[in-house]
């Protein structure tokens, strides 16, 4: 692999570099991990390419001890976010497939070394002194959450969650890191205590509740309902009530339905205290699910929106998508975001003492962040007026209060400067984490920007092509059957996408001379997505099954120009392509497989093949056409359901019908 790296790296063909770099992370072997680790440590690739290497490596289906060892070496030298998250993901995958490897406590075992490395940075209670310390602790917590190990981390994580004077986001990360650790009575009791402590922060209590839902039991549900009955915080009450109400209506078969039945049995007809409050001001959970017993297929989606009493903006949000197929539940995607401190900026800009004193923004939310201050202000304004002396004292109070309010906002801004983070999980593993600190370098670069140079460069124009290829899906699972033979299910997905850009953006005369601008260019995006699903029964010496191959292809081109000169009308033109443009082409093919051989399946003979067109020659000189071809097997009770009933295709295209047409203006 090192020889191949050197050979490709010495080539001058950039496209070869791109394809090789895109394919390398999906290798997953120790040799590939060694090459990528070496390239990152020696700055042979850009920072973003290094992150792509690591994120792709986290998607590898069968990592080895050597892979973990090389990523661990990289983390010890460069403990970046993506590297740490990948380390945790690789530990989890390896320990799931080979538990005996992870249970080896030998000091030379890379798994044991990696676990010790992750734990060593937490200390006793996750205390840090600098922002860099806090950042390092949070990323280690998230890596432990990916790994689900070691079990000894449980006590440390619970202590981190309730340690005073640590940032709230760190306490939340500690509670979220429990998600893959095995449940036990001590853990659930500690989480119930955190959730039931009314004096704790809203977000910490909600995070403790969500961690409890990973360990469902009748005892947990009863205790949660009892705490909800005496709840004093409407934000927590609204979230927990909506979450439990949705959970009891879930139809998701693997986790949702069993938990719903358990919850109903535990509550035994007891009605939850209702917190059906304004959805625009109070925290909320939502869930939607469906499942077809005939198709053995379904899915569910969950979302959380959490508010904080000190802010009129949502503090955090989460969206999760899960697919259920043939008895397996696949957590496809989860994205979460948390933001803090933006209400201070809004007040600074649009408040009474801001740069743009306009109360329309504040009125839009119908809620003010400094509610206590407003209450005190009303009390002062409602004081009885007893002659001139009372009015003078009242004016003095208002004047002093105004200055104190301004000072309070200044201090509050320093304490709660805007911060935020966005994370992405795929198949249950957190693979990317981005925060506002990633763009903090702009603060030092703003003064160095030369607008004249930028305008000249834009006026000259240029051409650029961006391309990316990746394997976004690689999953495999085995389901036991009553025949005694395992049913293997696998799915692989690859994509290649490119965007070609060209044009110029000449707006120099908008700032001096006669006002005018000239903008020309084109955008040509294209993409190919290929998904292959396989279902088969595996015997000792043979494997037979069905293979479905689906692909999506799209290529479009948008070409145009806009010109304007002072005193004249704006001219805008869109180019019409000479060749037919296929906006989208989707096809699905079906094969019977025996070992490595494939045989195409024609499917049911009855098909529906409409090909309608929308003729707009009279108005635009173009025509839009679509074509559909699908097997008509629903009338045949012996035929399987789509897509197993035969090949199918669908396409949408546009073609020019007026040969003289060049532009539409």
TrEMBL record:
InterPro entries hit by this protein: Lipid_transp_b-sht_shell (IPR015819), Lipovitellin_superhlx_dom (IPR011030), Vitellinogen_open_b-sht (IPR015255), Vitellinogen_open_b-sht_sub1 (IPR015817), Vitellogenin/Apolipophorin (IPR050733), Vitellogenin_N (IPR001747)
Record region (Disordered): 371-391
Keyword Disulfide bond: yes
Biased composition (Basic and acidic residues): 371-380
Protein name: Vitellogenin domain-containing protein
MF-aspect GO terms: lipid transporter activity; nutrient reservoir activity
SUPFAM superfamilies in alphabetical order: Lipovitellin-phosvitin complex, beta-sheet shell regions, Lipovitellin-phosvitin complex, superhelical domain
Keywords associated with the record: Disulfide bond, Glycoprotein
Residues annotated as domain Vitellogenin: 1-317
Signal peptide span: none
């Amino acid at each position: 692999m090192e020889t191949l790296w050197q050979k490709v790296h010495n080539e001058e063909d950039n496209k070869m570099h791109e394809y090789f770099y895109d394919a390398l992370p999906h290798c997953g072997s120790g040799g590939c991990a060694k090459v990528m680790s070496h390239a990152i440590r020696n700055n042979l690739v850009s920072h973003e390419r290094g992150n792509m290497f690591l994120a792709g490596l986290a998607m590898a289906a069968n990592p080895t001890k050597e892979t973990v060892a090389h990523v661990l070496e990289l983390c010890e030298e460069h403990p970046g976010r993506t590297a740490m998250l990948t380390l945790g993901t690789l530990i989890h995958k390896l320990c799931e497939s080979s538990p005996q490897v992870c249970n080896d406590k030998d000091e030379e075992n890379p798994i044991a070394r990696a676990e010790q490395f992750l734990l060593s940075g937490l200390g006793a209670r996750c205390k840090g002194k600098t922002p860099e310390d806090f950042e390092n602790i949070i990323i280690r917590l998230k890596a432990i959450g990916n790994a689900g190990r070691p079990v000894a981390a449980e006590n440390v994580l619970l202590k981190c969650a309730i340690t005073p004077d640590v940032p709230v986001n760190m306490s939340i990360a500690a509670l979220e890191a429990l998600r893959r650790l095995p449940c036990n009575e001590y853990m659930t009791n500690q989480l119930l205590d955190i959730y039931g402590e009314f004096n704790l922060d809203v977000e910490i209590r909600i995070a403790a509740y969500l961690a409890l839902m990973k360990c469902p039991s009748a005892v947990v549900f009863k205790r949660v309902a009892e705490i909800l009955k005496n709840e004093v915080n409407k934000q927590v009450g609204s979230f927990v009530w909506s979450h439990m109400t949705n959970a009891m209506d879930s139809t998701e078969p693997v986790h949702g339905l069993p938990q719903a039945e358990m919850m109903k049995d535990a509550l035994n007809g007891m009605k939850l205290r209702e917190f059906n409050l304004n959805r625009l001001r109070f925290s909320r959970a939502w869930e939607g699910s469906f499942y077809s017993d005939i198709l053995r297929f379904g899915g569910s989606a969950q979302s959380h929106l959490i508010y904080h009493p000190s802010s009129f903006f949502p503090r955090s949000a989460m969206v999760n998508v899960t697919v259920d197929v043939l008895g397996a539940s696949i957590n496809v995607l989860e994205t979460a975001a948390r933001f803090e401190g933006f209400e201070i900026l809004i007040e600074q800009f649009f408040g009474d003492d801001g740069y743009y004193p306009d109360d329309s923004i504040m009125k839009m939310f119908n809620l003010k962040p400094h509610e206590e201050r407003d209450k005190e202000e009303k009390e002062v304004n409602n004081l009885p007026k007893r002659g001139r002396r009372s009015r003078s004292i009242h004016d003095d109070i208002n004047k002093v209060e105004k200055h104190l309010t301004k000072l309070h906002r200044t201090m509050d801004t320093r304490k709660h400067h805007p911060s935020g983070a966005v994370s992405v999980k795929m198949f249950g593993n957190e693979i990317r984490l981005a925060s506002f600190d990633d763009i903090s370098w702009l603060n030092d670069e703003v003064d160095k920007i030369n607008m004249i140079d930028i305008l000249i460069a834009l006026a000259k124009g240029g051409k650029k092509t961006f391309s990316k290829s990746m394997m976004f899906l690689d999953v495999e699972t085995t389901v036991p059957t009553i025949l005694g033979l395992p049913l293997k299910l696998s799915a692989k997905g690859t994509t290649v996408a490119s965007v070609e850009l060209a044009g110029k953006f000449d707006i120099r005369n908008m700032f001096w001379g006669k006002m005018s601008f000239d903008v020309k260019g084109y955008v040509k995006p294209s993409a190919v997505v290929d998904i292959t699903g396989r279902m088969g029964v595996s015997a000792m010496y043979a494997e037979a099954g069905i293979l479905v191959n689906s692909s999506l292809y799209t290529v479009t081109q948008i070409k145009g120009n806009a010109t304007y000169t002072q005193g004249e009308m704006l001219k805008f033109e869109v180019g019409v392509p000479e060749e037919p443009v296929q906006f989208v082409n989707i096809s699905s093919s079906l094969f019977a497989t025996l070992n490595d051989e494939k045989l195409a399946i024609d499917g049911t003979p009855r098909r529906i093949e409409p090909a309608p067109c929308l003729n707009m020659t009279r108005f635009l000189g173009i025509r839009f056409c679509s074509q559909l071809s699908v097997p008509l097997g629903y009338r045949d009770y012996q035929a399987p359901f789509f897509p197993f009933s035969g090949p199918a295709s669908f396409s949408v295209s546009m073609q020019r019908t007026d040969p003289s047409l060049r532009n539409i203006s």
